[in-house]
Specification:
By secondary structure, the chain is α/β, with parallel strands linked by helices. 41% of the residues lie in helices and 15% in strands. α3 packs across α4 (97-108) and α5 (138-150) packs antiparallel against α8 (185-196). The longest helix is centred in the last third of the chain and has 15 residues, at 254-268. It comes from Guptibacillus hwajinpoensis.
């Protein structure tokens, strides 16, 4: 066990099970966004939570601009965590860009993962005419990046509201905004560039690990067309349309999120792994 890796990414391991369930947050968030979902699996799994370098209680001194200039740097962190904990055949649950990070990690070391669960995933956030609709025009992404550079707090407020949706529950947007504001702004900016300018569509056919795509309704960040595209191009994928709206169902609809994950695992994992009913 490499304690420096566990400290770098503030890795926390909970639960009574033997099969590892790794939860990866999305852009600008720390592991706490998964609390409501993750705790429902602690009776049956070894739950692994972590922070990206620059967020939460990670070791910010470990940040390397070159390493984290692309999503591969973040996926290498996931592989480092798996190696340090001697993990094999883990279930990786990623939100948004966290899904892509897990997918890239699985391509490098598929033996570390038995399943990928993608919540609101996107292989490319930018529209690429004429055949791909990612949700954003290039000018819109450049505008978001510019706002982050000039007024990070303002960006956090706007993007949290956009991503969360659920206008009738403003406390959820405030919680997400607080997560953004607890992340180092310079690192968050670099992470955003790595996220929004990434295009992993050409890698989808290389993925060998079975996956579940959880697609939210009324998701501005990752529209339904994106989830459907992933399902069409990702081998061994299962597609589930959620009742949850917005881009962060693990925060806004944790019960539905946990239930759909558990239903998928009940169908996918070998009979030797016992999974209890949703608690």
């Amino acid at each position: 066990m490499d304690k420096s890796i566990l400290l770098r990414n503030n890795v926390n391991v909970k639960g009574k099970g033997t099969t590892s369930l790794i939860f990866a947050p999305g852009l600008g968030c720390d592991q706490n966004v998964w609390n409501a979902v993750a705790k429902t699996f602690e009776e049956d799994f070894k739950v692994v939570l972590f922070d990206y370098v620059g967020s939460g209680n990670s070791n910010i001194s470990a940040y390397d601009e070159e390493r984290y200039s692309s999503l591969k740097g973040y996926s290498q962190d996931v592989l480092d965590i798996c190696a340090s904990l001697n993990i094999r055949d883990a279930i990786f649950v990623g939100h948004s860009v966290g899904s892509t990070i897990g997918m890239l990690a699985s391509m490098e070391h598929p033996e570390y993962f038995s399943n990928l669960i993608m919540v609101g995933p996107s292989p490319c956030y930018m529209n690429v005419p004429p055949n791909y609709f990612g949700g954003f025009e290039r000018e819109e992404i450049l505008g978001l990046i510019d706002l982050m550079e000039k007024n990070y707090i303002g960006w956090a407020n706007v993007f949290a509201s956009t991503a969360m949706g659920n206008e009738e529950r403003p406390e959820l947007s405030k919680e997400l905004e607080d997560r953004f504001c607890s992340t180092d702004p310079i690192i968050a900016l670099q992470f955003a560039k790595a996220t929004f300018f990434a295009d992993t569509r050409g890698d989808l056919h290389k993925v060998t690990v079975p996956s579940l795509i959880l697609q939210c309704a009324e998701d501005i960040i990752a529209p339904s067309a994106v989830g459907e595209y992933l399902h069409q191009h990702l081998p061994s994928s299962t597609y589930k349309q959620m009742k949850a709206t917005g881009h962060c169902p693990h925060m806004s609809y944790p019960n539905e999120t946990a239930q759909l994950i558990r239903e998928y695992l009940n169908e996918s994992i070998e009979d030797t792994v016992q999974i209890g009913d949703l608690r």
